[in-house]
Amino acid sequence: MTGSDIEIELCEPLVPVEEYLAAGVHIGTQQKSSDMKPHIYRVRGDGLYILNVQGTDERIKTVAQFLSNFESPKVLVVTSRQYGQYPAKKFADTIGGTAVIGRFIPGMLTNQSLSHYIEPDVVLVTDPIGDRQAIDEAVQCGIPVVALCDTNNMTGYVDLVLPTNNKGRKSLSMVYYLLTREMLRLRGVKTALTIEDFETEL
Amino acid sequence: MKFVQCTSCNAPLAEAGATRFPCPKCGHEIRRCNRCRKQSVPYICPQCGFRGP
User: CA-CA 20 to 30 A from A130: which of A55, A86, A101, A108?
Assistant: First the structure.
């Protein structure tokens, strides 16, 4: 493989852009935050801010590469959002990580006397607003935080932003599926998983 | 005595809330102090030029 082939492979999106658009990964909210400005592509006529799909694609690769630096059981996936629970659990189960879905019990990362106390090396949160408790505890412990951020999210205490629609069912399934696929690819594991395996049933 | 410094602002990583992690692109160690994390100050990897967060 020549150098130009490698460059082409790196530039290629993980899935065709049409699939990203069909899943609504680019759809933001009607609010925008100053932190997310660099990731916003344009504003639609109805006031919805649109995320840059190419940036999302690149960041999925970056986040997968980043999470691969840590041991699998030390990766903690947190989501309180209903539509994120199934894909996050599936992601954690597939890569061998830990998932906290639903309510994040305070003290999980800081109170050693609790039975469910865990010591992760990195935390992946689905929504910095809903999963604030997990971020606060990760900060107290000095753990890096990766977050799926929409156009309305502030990125305070987030060390790596994955700009995406973190509210949609299909969007969350797509992002977690691609993260799983990319992490397994980096490990040299082939998978037969499809995006349907990550979709929450209605 | 030499302190470990923040990649963004060069402040010593003395207080709680600071973190260090490998650069997502090249693996070089990135260090962020509590203030830079709180205010979401961008960091640039000195080795590969990756810009975060």
Answer: A55
